[in-house]
Target: ABC transporter ATP-binding protein
Amino acid sequence: MIEIKDLHKSYKMGSNSLHVLKGINFKVEDGELVAIMGSSGSGKSTLLNILGMLDGADSGEYTLDEVPIKNLSETKAAQYRNKFLGFVFQSFNLINYKSALENVALPLYYQKVPRKERQEKAMQYLDKVGLKPWAHHLPSELSGGQKQRVAIARAMAAEPKVLLADEPTGALDSKTSYEVMDLIQQINDEGNTILVVTHEEDIAHMCKRIVHLKDGVIVEDKKIEQVRAGQYV
Ligand SMILES: Nc1ncnc2c1ncn2[C@@H]1O[C@H](COP(=O)(O)OP(=O)(O)OP(=O)(O)O)[C@@H](O)[C@H]1O
Model:
């Protein structure tokens, strides 16, 4: 599904350059639930933004569903991103003056799904995240956990092949964080491929694989069983 080879990324700041990703290699198969961990500044969001085609790498290869990304024109890349990738952010990124239902229906509007169908589909996805009774409420009337559920329903309504979540629990208390991760696990159990950026160990432990970034390189990449076994040796 995802393959990256020798990925490099630097940010230019005046005459200086900050080398953030220093040769990243990894593969994600269909149906995986992967945590990308690392301390602040290790390059997690930079990597996720490149995987999400929101930013480009300086060098290296990125292949998504067997298509090499760097060969795509800008228009094709945008179409490809909308078709294959769903995003969830720490700050929810909901539209404040639109109801929960309208927020979830928005990607379907961009996909030119007819109005009635998109309302029905949005309602189905809200129901799936347990928020049908809140469909006509504004984001300001929802709790943080509920907002993140709406954001997840919105991302899933477009039926992406891969869901990319950047610190999805970063703005939530522990109990709500676990509930949101339960939902992410449930979506993964249905066959969706999900990558979660987090700096929280307990959140990473709710994924099936943990990739550890440090100073722009992968220092550890283990299945959760290996991580757990390692804790007891
Ligand atoms: N657009 C940018 N321009 C310049 N420097 C940037 C830019 N984006 C990120 N950086 C720098 O690149 C480094 C890696 O940032 P990144 O956001 O990828 O790290 P992170 O691991 O996600 O950190 P955090 O957990 O704090 O979000 C940091 O030193 C950051 O200041």
